[in-house]
């Protein structure tokens, strides 16, 4: 087998293709997925048992546990699934993959999803060039989905071709007679082969070839199958390389789940094996030969069925044992992979479910808590925007601006879904008081979204000013910072009333402070016009400067109205 530099570059390119597909699918999911998809996934994974059934169903349909776990990582990265929900689906995917093994063993049947990838891209072509943003995002979602399967196929075809050259593994028969150490050795071999082939099905086929040729017995084959369960987790962890911390945690949960299961299987190696033999005796099936290097035609024929039974029993027992420890597993992966706020700016509603059909008096309380989260997130966005003014390194500036842009997109979606939820409350059979609260919250959430829009516009102006050859002068920066200091007081007031719901809001005082900010902006505008006439700075940078402090005034107005609606909401309690 001759593996050249060109083959290595193909492998790297295949990995890049796969990762780009994962990134494209995840990002477009965030744009496309509205409350319907979120609610469908939420309903399908509302408890660990439903999550397991979902994982089994998806894997049985697409015939690839790797593809299922990659999609789960995408859903977590897009904020559509929580870490706990994802673990249930991953457990189900491990059981679902045994369906594939049985189809291969009994029927030789396996769906090649990658064959449909190019037709899918062809069908999505009109969507990609659509002027409608939602349709364009949907087209990107389909392309990303197709690229994931194409990438997996390319990875599989770009690795060293061990499948066509199984003889290179014949030497390992020399290591099959050292008792428990041999089992550990073949566990490692199964892991490595699956890592290399990027396919547990291909690794299983190789295992059967080795059994058929008499290189290893059933014990060693079982050890290789256990190793394959660890090796198959690499695909999801590769996909998580371009994902946020929560998605990385989901991929790590997949690895830990399989590792825990393998440890249990290694401790109970003989009882598991006897369970398989007992099952085969019950159905009057021929048992595989367990003596290394001694095979018969009947024993060889029994190998695929025996290994399929073992694989099924292992995954079902592993799931039944660990299903009760989903929360501890989630806590463990959070300790291993710490959440990073820089990476984890994702859309996620904490308190409300926009798919609820029945509304009661508690619904308004849930919505109020969600608005509090929305306002806290908007306050963080404002702080990030302020940091842009003092950042002069282009790379860091682009990174900060990207975060602000992400916050703004999330704000649009939170506004839409919270407002939809509140509108449904007003139309439902609730008390007049609750309906009044919901109406006040609709106005409040719209104003909070306007605050995020203003923050984003200010970020755009700062980013544009930094890209110009003639940046803001020292006096300009001084004036902008002075305006930010005035806004700080308003945001601090918002934060205060969020933390203490009983805190008084003196609207007349807040209105006067808002008017003072407007007067300061008017004075800055007068000074700006004088500076333009004198030629103190270039017209282009002057326009940006004027737009910036004007938008700061708009931001102050939005904050004032937010306080006004909070006061109105408190009065409706």
Description:
It is a single chain. The protein has 573 residues and is mostly helical. The chain has two domains: 5-336, no CATH class; 361-571, Phosphate transport system protein phou homolog 2, domain 2 (Methane Monooxygenase Hydroxylase, Chain G, domain 1, Up-down Bundle), CATH 1.20.58.220. The protein has helices at residues 5-32, 35-44, 48-62, 65-77, 83-107, 117-128, 133-158, 180-197, 200-212, 218-231, 234-239, 245-267, 269-282, 297-322, 326-336, 361-388, 394-427, 432-467, 474-499, 507-534, 539-571. The radius of gyration is 30 Å and the shape is elongated. The protein starts with a helix and ends with a helix. Residues 290-295 and 354-358 have low confidence and may be disordered.
């Amino acid at each position: 087998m001759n593996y050249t530099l060109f083959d290595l570059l193909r492998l790297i390119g295949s990995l890049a293709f796969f990762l780009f597909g994962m990134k494209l699918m995840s990002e477009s999911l965030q744009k496309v997925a509205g409350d319907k998809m979120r609610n469908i996934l939420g309903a399908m994974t509302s408890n660990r048992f439903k999550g397991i059934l979902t994982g089994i169903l998806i894997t049985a349909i697409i015939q690839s546990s790797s593809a299922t776990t990659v999609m789960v990582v995408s859903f977590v990265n897009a904020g559509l699934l929580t870490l706990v929900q994802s673990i249930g689906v991953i457990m189900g995917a491990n059981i679902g993959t045994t369906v594939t093994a049985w189809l291969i063993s009994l029927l030789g049947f396996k769906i090649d999803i990658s064959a449909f990838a190019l037709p899918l891209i062809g069908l999505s072509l009109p969507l990609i060039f659509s002027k409608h943003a939602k349709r364009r995002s949907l087209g990107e979602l389909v392309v990303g989905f197709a690229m994931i399967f194409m990438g997996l196929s390319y990875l599989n075809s770009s690795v060293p071709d061990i499948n066509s050259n199984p003889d290179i593994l014949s030497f390992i028969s020399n290591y099959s007679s050292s008792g428990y150490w041999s089992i550990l050795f073949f566990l490692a071999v199964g892991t490595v082969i699956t890592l290399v082939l990027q396919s547990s099905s291909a690794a299983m086929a190789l295992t059967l070839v080795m059994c058929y040729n008499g290189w290893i017995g059933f014990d060693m084959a079982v050890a290789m199958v256990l190793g394959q369960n660890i090796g198959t987790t690499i695909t999801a962890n590769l996909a998580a390389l371009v994902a946020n911390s929560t998605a990385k945690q989901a991929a790590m949960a997949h690895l830990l789940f399989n590792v825990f299961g393998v440890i249990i299987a290694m401790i109970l190696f003989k009882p598991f094996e006897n369970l398989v033999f007992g099952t085969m005796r019950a159905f009057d099936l021929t048992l595989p030969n367990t003596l290394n290097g001694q095979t018969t035609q009947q024993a060889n024929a029994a190998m695929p069925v025996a290994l399929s039974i073992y694989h099924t029993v292992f995954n079902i027992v592993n799931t039944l044992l660990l299903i009760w420890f989903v929360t501890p597993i989630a806590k463990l992966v959070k300790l291993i992979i710490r959440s990073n706020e820089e990476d984890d700016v994702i859309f996620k509603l904490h308190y409300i479910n926009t798919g609820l059909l029945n509304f009661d008096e508690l619904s308004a309380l849930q919505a109020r808590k969600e608005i509090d989260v929305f306002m806290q997130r908007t306050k963080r966005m404002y702080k990030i925007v302020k940091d842009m003014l003092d950042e002069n390194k282009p790379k860091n500036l682009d990174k900060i601006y990207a975060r602000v842009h992400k916050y703004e997109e999330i704000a649009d979606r939170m506004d839409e879904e919270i407002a939809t939820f509140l509108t449904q409350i007003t139309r439902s059979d609730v008390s007049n008081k609750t309906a009044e609260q919901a109406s006040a919250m609709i106005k409040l959430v719209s104003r909070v979204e306007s605050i995020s829009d203003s923050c984003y516009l200010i970020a755009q102006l700062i980013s544009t000013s930094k890209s110009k050859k003639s940046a803001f002068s020292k006096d300009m920066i001084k004036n902008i910072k002075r305006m930010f200091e005035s806004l700080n007081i308003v945001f601090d007031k918002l934060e205060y009333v969020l933390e203490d719901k009983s805190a008084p809001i003196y609207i007349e005082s807040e209105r006067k402070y808002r008017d003072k900010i407007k007067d300061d902006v008017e004075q800055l505008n007068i000074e700006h016009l004088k500076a333009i006439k004198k030629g103190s700075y270039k017209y282009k940078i002057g326009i940006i400067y004027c737009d910036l402090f004007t938008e700061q005034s708009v931001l102050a107005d939005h904050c004032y109205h937010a306080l006004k609606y909070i006061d109105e909401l408190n009065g409706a309690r």
